[in-house]
Structures are given as C-alpha cells and as structure tokens.
Records
---
Amino acid sequence: MKVAVLRLGHRISRDKRISTHVALVARALGAYKILYSGEKDSGMEESVNNVVRQWGGKFRISYQKSWRHFLKTRKGRIVHLTVYGMPVQDMVNKIKREKKDILVIVGGEKVPWEIYELADYNISVTSQPHSEIAALSIFLDRFFGGQELKKTFPGGSIVVVPQEKGKKIVER
Amino acid sequence: MKVAVLRLGHRISRDKRISTHVALVARALGAYKILYSGEKDSGMEESVNNVVRQWGGKFRISYQKSWRHFLKTRKGRIVHLTVYGMPVQDMVNKIKREKKDILVIVGGEKVPWEIYELADYNISVTSQPHSEIAALSIFLDRFFGGQELKKTFPGGSIVVVPQEKGKKIVER
C-alpha cells in the first residue's frame, strides 16, 4: 500500500516552512511522494530535492496545478485530514483493511467544500486546532504501525548513527 | 506524569508559525504547558491564549529567558528531541517506566551542546531531517499511548463534533 501526500493551497510567502515540513515528514515517515497545489515554489522543491540527494531514498515532490482534475482521475483511497473529521484512532484500521494505495490530503487555510465530498475518509487527529504537520505525522505513524520509523534511505551521502549523547554523522 | 514542553531559540520573524504549531500540538496532545526561550513574542502568546480561551482546557504558555538556569533547577526528567538521539520506539517504554514528570525540549536552528549533556534522554523520531512539530507529536502520542487523543478540554466556547462529511461546531 503506497502513500502519497497532497498539500493544498501553498502560498510562497506564508507557507514555505510549514509546507517544507509537511514534505519532509511525508518523506521521513514512509510516503513516496508529495504533490502540492496553490503557488508553484521552485525554492521549496529544491530544498526537498536537496534533502533527498543528501539523505537518500526516492522521494519526489511535484506541483499539481489542478487538484480537482487530479483527484477525479486518481485511483486508490483519499484520506483528508481535518479537525472536523472522524477520530483517527477509530478509523485507521478500517482504512488499512482496504489494502488500497492512499492519498493523504492536508489542507491550507481554507479547504474547498468539494474536498470533504471527494474524500473517502475525513479524519481528525483530536478535534482541537493544532498543526497539519502533526496530523500527518500521527496518521502516518498509525497507518504504517510504527514500521516507517525503521525505514532506510539508500543512496544518500549522509547517515546519522543514533547516540545517547552527542552527534554522529557518517558520510558515504 | 505531567509533561511540559520547552521550545528553544524562538525567533519572531522566522519561527512564529512553527513555534505556534509546537505550542498547539503540545496543548492538543496532552502537555500542560509550553515554555519558550529566544525572543519574547507577545503575539504568539496571545494566539495560543486565544485558542485556550475558545477551545478550553488549562494550557499555559510562558517565556523563559534563561533556559540554563531553568533546566538546572528543575525536577523530573528531560527528554530532548533530536535527529541525533536514540530511536523513540526503543526508548519510550523506559521513559514511561520511570513514572516521572517530564520536560520535552524541542530545538530551534542551533541547539547548544549543553542541552545534549543536560538531557536525561536524547531521542530521535527517525534519523532523518523533518520537523520538530512531527517529532513532538509522535513522542507525545507514544508517551501517552494514544490516551491523549481522547482528552477533553473543559470550559471553552467551541466544540467540534466529528463528522464523516462536513463540519459540525457547537458553541457553548
């Protein structure tokens, strides 16, 4: 079951860091790809591609001008993360049992009504306001059942070796 | 076991949104308090306090000018989240078994060496670069074992009622 992430409504001036975090979390926690709509941002794409180059793996970022067309022609299941949705802890096993590829949508400031309709699942991580980065993290961790934390990223030039104190980086 | 969060090195111009997300995630996922060092930011404090007022609970935010003094005089355990630390999945049960209050430290751009030394645990959520917001989320979710997702927040004026499609907000 492959997971892609779609970040809606990116605005360069306001969202650069948040959207970059969304992309890096998608990569680190087992998604194979991030798409984003809104404003095209070559700087953000380059940041993400630089991480892939240095740290390995095959993660990709791509701009999606028309999310509407993309969502209507796509196969697999759509999971929309929203504070208004059903609790992740009640729904994640049902989503896993479908054994389908999924697209996880994380919204920007204003999510169009259509997204709620097009989504197979509207899912919340608590019904409190917090962060799309946090919602994505917890969804992916629960969807992959923790296995994603052990994922390796072949082909990069940098590997961190976990330490109790201090920093150990190996260059390949 | 109470959990507080300390965000190091806040810079108003660059970190406002990221630090606000850190604070809101701390609140939503069961911490009782966030402290932050770096630049004092009344705007951020107000944003967080507004969420508490509207959405309930007793979460607090406070500025900590000297993290060094604060850490040295504090009781409980210090958990520092860093890409260089030991894997969260291997360490979280050990931390829970101590049954101590904890302070979770999330860094900014450059974390002083002393923090690695002062921390009882340096913990990583994957050894890949991603987001302090994601690391905090996954640490809290695993530390509280998912119970934090059911937390209620008494006293606010807004409650979201989870829906399969659409938005339902009840005002109290």
---
Amino acid sequence: MRGLSLSSIVGRIAITDGMDDQAIKALEDAGHEVTSTHYSIEELLDGVLAEFDAVVVRSATKITAEVLASSSSDGSKLGFIGRAGVGVDNIDVAAATNNGIVVCNTPGASTRSVVEMTIGHFIASARHIARADRSLREGKWQKKELKGTEIAGKSLGLIGLGRIARGVADAASSLGMEVHAYDPYVQSSPDWINMHDDVDDLFRKCTHISVHCNLSEETRNLVNSARIGMMPGVGNDGTACGNHIVSCARGGIVDESDAAMALQNGQLQTLALDVFDREPLGDSELLSLDGFHGSPHIAASTMEAQRRIGTEMTSLLIEYFETGSPSTSLN
Amino acid sequence: MRGLSLSSIVGRIAITDGMDDQAIKALEDAGHEVTSTHYSIEELLDGVLAEFDAVVVRSATKITAEVLASSSSDGSKLGFIGRAGVGVDNIDVAAATNNGIVVCNTPGASTRSVVEMTIGHFIASARHIARADRSLREGKWQKKELKGTEIAGKSLGLIGLGRIARGVADAASSLGMEVHAYDPYVQSSPDWINMHDDVDDLFRKCTHISVHCNLSEETRNLVNSARIGMMPGVGNDGTACGNHIVSCARGGIVDESDAAMALQNGQLQTLALDVFDREPLGDSELLSLDGFHGSPHIAASTMEAQRRIGTEMTSLLIEYFETGSPSTSLN
C-alpha cells in the first residue's frame, strides 16, 4: 500500500540515525515495517524517503527543502518526520509544513541528561577535574596549581530559560548558587530566579554563565569578548573565583576565538564546551589551553535519554498511524 | 618570654605548611609573632618547635612522638598544635596529650568543597568528562563511544556517614539519587537515608559507591574485588549503568590493584580517586585505563575552604592564648 489513510495503521518507517533497540522492537511489535539504515545525501535527493510513510532522524540526516521535494512519488508520500531529540536545525520545518508533512520531536526526553552534564561541567571547571587527570597522567602532582573554588555562594547566569535551563536552575540552587536568567521570550518564571531584561546585566552580575538558547542570528556570538569582559570575577561570597562559562546548547553562540583570547588574558578562568561552531571539532586553539575542557556533543547522549526518546517517538508514531495526527507536533 | 601563662595573650606561632594570608594577618594584628616557614624533619627533631608556643600544620609536617619529645626546652614549651584541615594522621595525638599539648583541627571548614568534588567526580565519571576531553585533545570525536548514564534514578552508597557524607547525601538526593549508607559508629541518621548494618549489603544495593571514612585497620582495602563483584551494575530505574566508585577520603581504603582489575574486567565501569595509597601517585596501572580519572588530593583545596580554615584556626589560637583552652579540641 502506498500513501497514508486513516485506515492504514501500519506504516513503513525509516530510522536513519539509529534509535533505541527497544523502541524499534515496539514499533515492529505494533506491526510497522522498520528500516534502520543511514542514507547519503545523494540517496535522499534521489527520493529514497518517498518509499516510506515516516522517517526518524537525529542530527546527522539533513532534511532540506530539496530532500522534501523528492520525498513523494507516484502514490507514495512521506507524511511524518520525527526528530529523536530536541533541536530541529537539520530539518526545514517550513518546507515540511508546505508539503503537508508533520514534524515531531521529543523535547523533554533529554532534559535531565543535559542538566547533569551542565552541572558536571561547572564542577569539573571550578575544580580542574579534566586538567587534574591530564596532569596525573603526565606523572605530575600539581596540588598547589590545581586549587579550585566552590560553586556554592556564586551567581549562575542562564542565557535562555527553557526546560533545560529551569532544570539547571533547580540543581544549581540546591547546590547553593544564586540563580539569574535572561530570556526575552518567557512570560513567567519562579520568584527565586532573578530575571534580567538586558543580557549585559546578566554578565555583569554572574561569575558563572551557562548557555541554554537556540542558535539564531540574535544569539550568534552572543558570548563574546565585550560581554566576557563585563563578568565580575569575584563571587557574592567575596571569593576571587574568576569567570566560568559552560555551553551544552549549540555551537556558534559562544565566540570560540573570543573565548580563547579571554582564557589567555585571564578574563575567563575556565570554559567548558559540549558544542562547537564546527563539529567534529578537529584542530582548535582551545585544545592548547589549560582552562578549557570539552566533550563531543554528548550532553544528551545517555542510555536514559535514548530510552525516553525511543518511548516518546514510538508513541508519536503509533498515534500518527492510528489517527493521522500525533498529540504534539512542531507544525 | 618563655612558656605560656594565662597572662601571656601574645604568642609565638609557627605556620609550617602555609595558611590563608588574611588569617596570618589577623594573628599579627592581634599582636602574635608569626613565623611562616617549612621545617625539615631534622630541624623538627632538633627541637625547633620548642621556640614556639603554637604550631599550625597541614599534612606535610609530621608531628611524631619523637618530634614532640624535643618540643620543649629550658623554660619554653610548645602548647598548641593546630591542624589547618581535618585529618590528623600526621599528628601523634596521644603523645601530644601525654605532653600536655592541646590539638585542634578545623573539621567543618572544607566540608562543602569535598561534597562538591565528590558530586563532580561522579558526574565526570558517568559522563566521561575527563576521558572526553582527552579524546578531543587527541583530535577524535567519539560521540558514540562516550555515551553515558544519568546519576538520577540510581542508588548511592556512602561508606561512613559523617559531616561530608551527609553533605553528599543532601546533594545527591536533590539530584535524584536514592541514598544508602553504612556507618557502624553513627547513632542516628535522617529517615530518608537507607542505613545498612552490613557493608556488603551496601555494595549489593548500590551502583554508585562513595568513600567517606577514615583509614584504619578496619577500613584498609575495604573496597576490594569481592565487594566490587557484589555491585548490581543496573540502577533502580533499570538502566545498565555499570558500577562507579569515587573516593575523596584517604588512600588505602580502595584497593587500587583490585579496582584496576575490576575496571579491566568490566565489574567497574568507572573509578575516580582524589586520594591514593601512595602520594604523590607517580606511576600507576590506573593511569592507563580509560574508566579511571583522578585528581591529586585536592578535594578540600579551594579558596573558600582555605579561608574558612584560616578563620577557624585564628579563632582557636586567639582563644588558646587568651584563656589557655580553645572552645573545641581533639584531646
């Protein structure tokens, strides 16, 4: 059967960037035909997606307007794009909408994982955990050089106050930090979070900054030399803890070249990045700096998040095939 | 003036392993004569401490019975030993007591720092933070290999339930862990901490174990192959997260050779140590293992802890010189 109708509760699903095994099994158990394989951009442009009713991607597969233009053929038409994760930078949602294709993601599934990674990166920064391990492996015992500072008693500034940032706020607050945030798009926030109307004020107030916004023209290079230069370097508790920045959001929001300069001139004591302007990172001047440590875009990469993503995506797909419209979608 | 009497509120104080600058200034402002210098074991055995009314050490200076035997001379006698920190492994407290010397430490000053380091080491372990940074610096982008697990939804087992362990319990609980503990010496504990009478039960129940006891004949090699083999490897939430051990307590409690073997055979997924059987660590088979990361005994080494230690030690010294007996002491 080609083309989806309300009577077709069994569908052909392409999983192009992998998904949790149990989720794939649940889809197969529900009678769906699942093909888990990665397609090249040539195959995508050649219309391979027209063979499927639904496709589920992570970030590796790019669903451009051109790919979508070739996603229907005689009597067969892709109707559902699932993003197993949060960010849909790799999907042209407007083009999908124009083509009558529903787009769904699983926004809450990885929140906890990213929250923990953010807190982990802050403590690893303030206490030099990655640097200490490197130093030990080089046969050194740099007890004095690796004196750190506590995160308790310091001000944390959140750029963006969505689901993940609110989780970070809760965790940081329970660990003794004072929480500040800037988000021109939120209407309401808990009383105990100090909201700022001007992002510069957030930098002036906070020794610790965490990035939790999308990449857009508005946020590109938002964390730059000028703003890093505004950070106070001294915590609320009077400790000269220096300034610390973490980003587990998207590359391009922290200006890596400005941040490298700030690490060298001491405006920034540490920088921890899980995301980069160019991924994979490859060569970078950051890698030669002691105050930097990084991870390869793994903040959401946990067994728990992948299981939750699989469970949520399976529900959305089954709803879609049963009713023609999933309970939540992005368009 | 030699010898301390109640009328001598001004004393000669040796600071042999350094102390916070502001604390030294406060002592000098109070009229005390402060000598901040490190003495060799020969100088100590030669009676250099007899020149002082009080000595403040960290861990580098060893105050043995022999050193104490030479700490008095004609009309001059050391009367106060301050440990700027917690552990008094380096001070023969019994010999001090026999010599009528009061011994004080600053037990609460570094609690927060060690709590944060412990949590930081657990997240760094579960999310491969040190390993990810090494991998990035080697030019790799190991997104798949570095998939981690959340600490939320897992059981944390605390060996020892003193001040630091209770702080770790609070933090871990606020981050979504279920907390278990073993401590044959505590009389009472909060309801929400699951106490175990048998340390083996703690290992059987917990995927995450944190060491918070002293080193003694009873605790030496307490964390060994047999007990690591009892750990469940699967969290309360059903995640096959593997087993994780952190120690920021004292070297010798975790059997490093057994732990290395457990990392190699997979019984242990990660091990993070701030303390080692031999310090400085030098060569160790642990350093060749991906699942290990370490730090050079810096869990209490923060600006905040050092400031609090200095403030507390200054108060104890001033009380001692004013009244002959500080408000708290170890003997």
---
Amino acid sequence: MPVLVMKFGGTSVADLDRIANAAAKVRAEVERGHEVIVIVSAMSGKTNELVKWVSETATFYDAREYDAVVASGENVTAGLMALRLQEMGIPARSWQGWQVPILTTSQHGSARFIDIPRTNIEQKFAEGMKVAVVAGFQGLSPENRITTLGRGGSDTTAVAFAAAFDAVRCDIYTDVDGVYTTDPRITKKARKLDRISYEEMLELASLGAKVLQTRSVELAMRYKVRLRVLSSFEEVTETSGTLVCAEEDIMESKAVVGVAHSREEAKITLFTIEDRPGIAAAIFGPLAEAGVNVDMIVQNISEKDYDEAHPGAVTDMTFSCPVDQVPRARRAMEEARARGAINYDDLIIDDDVAKVSVVGIGMRSHTGVAARMFTTLAREGINIKVISTSEIKISVLIDRKYMELAVQALHDAFALEGAGRS
Amino acid sequence: MPVLVMKFGGTSVADLDRIANAAAKVRAEVERGHEVIVIVSAMSGKTNELVKWVSETATFYDAREYDAVVASGENVTAGLMALRLQEMGIPARSWQGWQVPILTTSQHGSARFIDIPRTNIEQKFAEGMKVAVVAGFQGLSPENRITTLGRGGSDTTAVAFAAAFDAVRCDIYTDVDGVYTTDPRITKKARKLDRISYEEMLELASLGAKVLQTRSVELAMRYKVRLRVLSSFEEVTETSGTLVCAEEDIMESKAVVGVAHSREEAKITLFTIEDRPGIAAAIFGPLAEAGVNVDMIVQNISEKDYDEAHPGAVTDMTFSCPVDQVPRARRAMEEARARGAINYDDLIIDDDVAKVSVVGIGMRSHTGVAARMFTTLAREGINIKVISTSEIKISVLIDRKYMELAVQALHDAFALEGAGRS
C-alpha cells in the first residue's frame, strides 16, 4: 500500500478543533488508499512556553535537559491526534521519537538524523494500523537521551520519514496555501506557484521566504522526496498548494520563478588589506568562530599606490551578514587585527541595506536575466551596492528603503504575474 | 554513599518558584552526604489539563494513548528540576520512565511495577552525578509503550525506587506537615504523629486520611522502606513530618493512634436470602464485576419462621459501599435476582451513614478498646448501625450527622491530644 507522509505545523494543531480538522484530512488520505505517517508539531504556543520555563530556570542550560522538556509538546499532540483518529474509526497509534526509534546524533538542540528503522512502524501497518502519528522535531541520541532538531525541525522529520518509507509524497500542511512568486504583503500581484524545483525552493527558503525549513528541502532534494506545501485551512484538491519536486518534473521553465527579499542585512567593508594567499581564511575563520553568518562576499582589487605601511599588494574586502550580527562581526575583526592575524586601515559598516534576489532554474538556459534585473533597478533609480550570483540566482544589496520598490519592479519585469507553470 | 529518595507532589512543584524551593531541599540533602533520587509529579493542574484534552478528544479513549499524553506532565517537571539543580551547581539529570527503565505491566492507567533495574542510574552516580530526577507516575510496558500507575502514582514510584536502591529513607513532600491523630478540620485537638506503623498508616490511608496512597504504603511495608511525610513549605528538621516505619521502630505503643472517618458511605441490606454455601459469592461476585467497592460486610442469622417461599434456612446480608456506587450496586443485585442467581425479599438502602474508625497496633496488647469506643458513642447518644473489626482497627457505621461528634468524642476518650509517641 502506498505510504503518504503528512505534516501538521503548530498552527494546524493549535487546539482540539484544529486537531480534529487535521484528522479529517488524514482520514481523506486513508480513504484514498494510503497508509499514512502523520508528523505533528506541538500545539502552537506550547513550545514557547516550555522554552520560557527552561530559560527562566537556568541561565546556561544543559541542552540535554532543554531537549527533554521541550520535546514533550509534540508528544502531547501525537497522542491527541491518534485518539482523534481512533474516535473516527481509523486504526492509529502515536509514536514518540525513542519508540520508532528516530536515531540521531548527540548534538542536542540541532541533532542530525542517523537512521529511521522501518521495522516497528511497518509491523503495525502489517497488523492493520492505517496511521502512525509521530512526534516531530525530536529523536534519540546514542546515549539514549532525547534530542531535538532545532526550531522548525518537524518539516525535516516529515521529509526524513518520507525518504525512509519511500513515501509517494510528503504533504506539509501549514497556514499558507503554497509558495508564492514573492511576498504577497509586498505586491498583490504575487501568485502561487503550482510547482517549484528543489533548487529554487532552497534559494527561496534561504533567502527569506519562510514557508519551509531549508534543511527539509535539502533532505528532500537528496532523497528525491516529492514535497507539497499546502494550507490546513482550505479544502484539499489535486492542484492544492505547491509541489516541490525535481527539475525534470517541471514542464515549462521560465527564467525566473520568484523574487525573494531579506530586509535586515548589513554590509561590512575592510579597506586596504594585504592581498596575499590565505587572507580570506584569516578574515572569515574568525567570523565563523564568532557565529557570524556571512552571506555575500566581494573582493575588489584596490588600485592604491604602494606605501610604506603596506609594502605588498592591497585590496578591499566586503561581506554581508544579518544586521543583528554586526557587533559580533566587528569584535571578531578587531580582535583578529589586534593579534596580528589580519591588517586593515578601516572597517566601514552599512547597516541600512536589504537583499533582493531573483531565482529560477531557467536562468541556466535563458540569457540576459542579470542584464534585465540591473536595467530594471537602474530605471527605478536604485543603486546596487553588492552583486552576488549562483547558477540559478542573482542577489543584490540595495538601500533598505528601496526594497519594496525593487521587489515590485522585478516581479513586473519578469512577468511573474502571468499564468502559473505546471 | 547512602541513597535518599525525595518525592515532590504537584503543589510542591506548581511553578518555577516552587521548583526552586524543592531544589533547595534536595541540595540540603546532597550536602548532608546523600546521593538523591528525586521523584516529581506534574506541575499542579497540568495533569488535569491533559486529562481534559484526552476526554474531549475521544469518548472511549485508548488507554495507551491516554498514558502517552498524560505522562508528559511529569517529564516537563523532571527536566526543569534537573536544570534548577544544575543551576545551583549540583550534578543532576532527568530520567523519563523508559530511560531508567521503569518496567511495568501493560495495565495502562493502573500499571504495576515489574522491575526497576539500578544499572543506568548507578552508573551515573559512579560518574559523579549527585541527583537523579525521575518522572513519577509512569513506566514502560513490555510492548515498549508508556504506562501510568493511576492517580497519585508518584508516591508509589518513590517507594519503589527506595526499595530498588535500598534507600535510607523515602521522604514524601506534600502540602501537609505529617499524619495527624485525626482530621484537624474536625477537632483542633488533632495532633501530628511523629511515628506511625505501616499497618496503622494503611488503615488510616484506606479509611480516608488522604496523605499517602494506600498502594505506596503497602509497598513500603513489604520492602521495609522508611517513609517520611513532610511539608514542602516548612523548614526541615530532624523531627519534621511523620515517619511511617515498622512496628519495632516505635517505642511506645498506645492502644489507639488515630481516629479516621469516611463521610460518604451507604449501607445496603438484603433481607431474607437463602442461607446456603455459596450465597456470599453469589452476592459479592456481581458487585465486584459492577465495580462496587464493598467495605464492611455483616451477615445476621435471621430468626424468621419457615414459609413456603423460603423452604431452607434464611438470613439477612448487610454491606457498605461509597454512596456514589449505590445505583450500580442496586442494579447488580436486581439483575442477579432477575436471572435467579440470588433471591431476596427486600433491598433496603441507607445512604445517610458515615464510617468512623479507631486505629492502633497497641490494640493487640491493650484490651477494652472496643468497649471504650462503644461506651463513648453510647454516652453521646450515637447509635451504631454496623460494626467491623480487624486486628488493629474498629470501625462503625453511624448516622452521618453524628460523624464529627463521634470523631471528637473518640479523640478525647483515647487521649490522643496527649504527648506524641516517638
């Protein structure tokens, strides 16, 4: 019997009525002939309550105890969902992470999957169980302690189960009805995509379209799990939501499928640094150790004259990071300079920038995407501060005040309002 | 190093401040040189919330799912308590039932202990851990499912751990400061006992002095666990609380140590039943099946004349049960009569009675306790409806309106206000 994985997030199981609503969607899939594995989050608000208790109890908390406390929210939902399904006459039972068992590493708070053995759940399916309700976000370490996967980890749990059980699809039920060409709060022309490739979804997820956890999309791509994002609060049809799938499952490929944005960015430039092998490592090593998530990096050849202070070739280095990490980045650079690991004349921070990106696998075959993007921004009078590109993405840093304007103009320029691709 | 078990009930861990207060008491015991096993209940109110969710989700719930949901409350407290202790600099960790593992039968909702292997916890003690915080009330079935022991099961967990680890003592922290000679709400002369024997405590617990779960006292008696009941909200000293211990640890033995009462009792009499072998089984079998907790039983030889309807010897049978079980008891009797299993002329219910008991191991050596009890009640004009005795207890059923008067008079008559025994 084909296995389907369905995942319900916190807002989809926020109270008993919503659990009943989610259970009805599960029943519909059982009636369509699936064996279903349901992954549940904690009832919305519960995880925050538990996290608050932990941080009020201990300043520097033991991550193992944090995990043991925080994982309990999902256990409650799993039991209630199983009960609700049973009440509807569907053979169901709950599974906590250690019961499956969901084997993970010991990195508490951000554990990684090692293995999800199928034996226990498959045996129950063989005995007539139709639905296995699994507590998301958690696992079991080699030391027999409860681990968690980090916030949003239930998406990842769902994909991992879909991979482990060769599921026909992994449906992620959430409070939005799919992935959009851009943020609908910025332009009403934003349109739901019927399909998107893993690669595009990854770029969009990491660029700030917070529908799916990046890690879950990576996992889906690696194991070719067909992922569908859809709303818990709407009737489900064949065309509901957005299917995240392999490139070859997408017929038409427009050059650009979406415009992403990230508002709280900062740009940091180190002026007049030595241009020598190892200088990048000397800069970005300390930043990584300080926990700074460096995003774009640009190195300019500086055409300065030779001077006594800098006898070798010199250059400038610019990078971006989230604006709230600027103090950490500055301290890391100052410390590195103080101990002689790097040398720079000046460190300039621009913490008033935003990032706008266009994404699409079609870029590989369509030429002129970059040109059109830059022309569009120029026409609006928007200055580009940094450019960075990947095979399927072009990102620019611009003044933050132009962010909405840039998104709207690019959405128009690439005709994203047009008929959806399928 | 001597192991001490400390158990904190729901009101003792109701919020983060109270958890901190309980943790301070644990620290004091660590400083006195103990390795401590702490058994915690759910934060007060939490279990009720979870139970409510379960019963609102499913009418006839799967007890296995009920247990999985309801046990999560204790897991939260265990983690928070471990964190709080760590914050105080005490090496501690939490243990959920399946991690110890606490092996129980599969009777979900009222599971029984099979074994509590010491290996895992002892290994951590050997590595320098000072406190193992264990989630009470739960265990693990042979099918790898979470079980619970029934309400109040955390007391039983505590005693079972004390037995398994040969603990020097099992301290039960609660919201009262010990076991009293009688209910202080009925007479201000009620006095805290310093010591009480297991047998006496069992009689008092089952008679309505709700300080300790009956099952936990039974278990303590079987394994000779020294149990101390004391308040979470008072300074702990050497003489705090009440020690429940073996008879030989009690120096002085007064005839009577306490007067217990149970308000909501009912008396049911079956008139003119056949007096033949097997008639008691024919009556009390159906009552047990109907879930009626029969307490006192009295059979009178009826001196009625022979008549046609009852050719053999006849008798009357009287028993008592909690007043809310009367409808069930009546139905069970009527059904048994309808199918010819028993025969009676009349069934009379008196649902306006209460039970008052005097308890004391000293009764075995002191004579005249019954006589003094009956004389005292007679002097107050209280009619005795049923009498039942055990080796260390005399109970009577009386009109409910006289209950307080009877307790007060007996407390005076046996001089329980006097100096405590030790």
---
Amino acid sequence: MAGNTEKTLAKLGIALPQAAAPAANYVPFVISGNLLFVSGQLPMENGKIAISGTLGDSVSLEDGQKAARLCAINIIAQAKAALGDLDRVRRVVRLGGFVASANGFTDQPRVVNGASDLMVAVFGDAGRHARAAVGVNVLPLGAAVEIDAIIEFA
Amino acid sequence: MAGNTEKTLAKLGIALPQAAAPAANYVPFVISGNLLFVSGQLPMENGKIAISGTLGDSVSLEDGQKAARLCAINIIAQAKAALGDLDRVRRVVRLGGFVASANGFTDQPRVVNGASDLMVAVFGDAGRHARAAVGVNVLPLGAAVEIDAIIEFA
Amino acid sequence: MAGNTEKTLAKLGIALPQAAAPAANYVPFVISGNLLFVSGQLPMENGKIAISGTLGDSVSLEDGQKAARLCAINIIAQAKAALGDLDRVRRVVRLGGFVASANGFTDQPRVVNGASDLMVAVFGDAGRHARAAVGVNVLPLGAAVEIDAIIEFA
C-alpha cells in the first residue's frame, strides 16, 4: 500500500509519528481548494517536546536543525493524516519557520534548513518551497522551533 | 436581515464593532478567489487597545485570552465588512496568533484559544481552523495579542 | 519591452536588483494556482544587508522604513523573476512584516508602511494589501526588517 513517498521516508529511516490530534478548537490541518494548511508543528517526538530552549543560548545550531527536522516530520505526518497518500503532494508551497532565539543569534535560516532539506529529501523538487524564517524570544512549551506549512495537493 | 451567524453572535452577547478603516496603504482585508485575507487585528475595543502589555509579566493568562477573543471579534467584524453576510463564511482556514511574551512564558496556545474558542462558538464546525501560535517580545501599540486570518467563503 | 509597472519603477528611480538566487533547499518563490508566494525578503542592497540592528535601539524609525522599502523592492524583484512581466500582477494580497524591535518599541506599523507605501506607488490600487506587522527580538543576519508576500497574478 505504501506509495513512493513513503518508500523514500523508509529509505531515510523516518517513521512517521501518529499525527497529533486536535488539542482544542483549532485543528492540525484545514483543506481549502487544493491547498492544505498545516498548523504550526513543534519538535515533538514520542508525544513530548524533544528539543526545547533558545538558540544562541542553551540550544546549539545542530540541535536547532534537528528540531526543525522534527517539525518537518510532524508536518509530513499531518499531511499523511489529511491526504491519506503522500504521493498526492504536488508542491510544498510555503514553510513558516519560527526559531526561539537569544537577541544575538542571527542564524535562523541555517536552523530552518533542517526542515527545508528534509522536504526536498522526501518530496524531491516538489519539496522546494517558499519560506520565511524569523527569530522570536519564546515559543509554546519552550520549543526551540515551530514551523507551519501550506501544501498543494492533487 | 440578520443571518444565522449574526443571531449566534447576538446570543453570545457580542456586538460587532465598526470594522476599523484602513489606516494607510494597506487595507483590513483582501479577497483573492474564494479566500478572504484579514490583516492582523489587535485587541481593540471602542477604538483603542483594550489589553496591552506582556504575558508572563503584566498580563495574566485570563486577560491574554480576553485579548485573543477581542482580536477574533475584530476579525469577524472585518469579515462582515468584506462579505456583507457572515453566513457566507464556509471555513475559517487559518489563524496566525502572535502573543507578546516575557522570555519565560510558554503558554501561547492557551492564550490563542481565546480566539479559537470564539470562532467555533460563532461558526460551529466551520470555525475550526489551522493555526500557528508563537511568542514575540513586543507588538504594535503595545498590544498583548495580534491575530490575522484566512477565511474561505462562498 | 518594459511594461507600465516597470515604467512606474523607473519614474520612482528604482532599479530592481538581481533577484537573489535560492540559497538552499528553499526557493525565493513558489507559484500555486494564480498565487505567487514570495519568501521572506531582507533589506538587501548590492548583495548585502543594508540596514541591520534593532528598532527602538540602534535603528531609527526612518531607517526602519527604508529597510521595509528595500524588502519590498526585493519582493518586486522576485515577482519579476517569477512572472517575467510585472504588469501581470493583479493584486498584492498580503504582506507579512517582521520588525526587529527592542522591548519598548511599538511602532511596527509605521515601519512596515515603508513597504506598503511602495507597493501602492508601484502597483496603484492593486498594491493595496492585507498585512500583519509584528515585532520580534532578532532577524536573520541581524536585519532590521523581514517581509514576505502573497501576490495574485494573471
């Protein structure tokens, strides 16, 4: 049953987590036309924040990139929950990356590359996206990174 | 003349404010296709910021939720100005929530729930939306919360 | 060959820069349907950040507005790279403005007006957009402002 995208995930050694269920009156994704809007995902692993803290302070660049990659894995898990088959993804349109940052930390783009690189590893050229990457002083639950997404599907 | 959504608003005891007029070369909303993009709304009441300051410092969680609810009321007022009839709302697609936060405050999702809960109270299942909730150190005019929206309409 | 919009740019004395090439696995823009999503643009001039630092600290309101205007020029350069002819722009739908801000600086809307005003100067009524303007403590490469865009085209 697994499509090509899921085979790619398997080759990358990535097991998609259970897509996090709605926690409140917002939902993890909404479909409008052929666009899938995915709520801001945190670097959750096994149901809890795997990487918390602040870049430029307690979190290294490498761990920030791992956090961004985890956010991207959770985005893909939501896309699978929404679409059933990840091969329906036509284009990752946009990622919005928020990086918990000390005032002097200005390397947000390299942090968010952890997510961007995974999208291309998983979806190929369809994974190339527009994005914004900004610093913020603090994120929900103390997460190091939060990323949301808009995905075009067929 | 009032549609069902406006009856719901009345039952909730919510009087929509006059939609704030454009303050500059940006406008409070733009329609593209069947999507309504609403500019970031502040917790304005009677023409001024009702709740200013920083969560985790001068603003309590409860007041932050009230601020988020006020932002949502202003989003709905803009939707009415844009669409005429709120019953044309098919889906609140996405809310973007920014919470003015002290460095140690990590409860942004519960703050933004003040807006999410109102959307579902007003629009029912059509009010369930994707969202991002992040902390920032400061917002326009010192507002405690800012929220923008994408709404699908018919 | 220059369309009307490029004539307007020339009258404004604005030479579009070379659109910055993709720096990584994200790209400067993605087209989905008739919407152009432009990645967050920094106040780059001649290939480097022209205005860095923090509003309310080392950067004046006037310089912040210049930074926002530069971001807008870079957005327009990306739109030209994407669409070929800027006269294809039907509407600037949304700008997302992030302003590097000291905790006490609350004038983000006036900063982002530097971009909003340029969009209307260049595109006329089609340049009037929805927007969000928020403060953040720090931006990539120390930039004073970052702005992303959604543009409808024909």
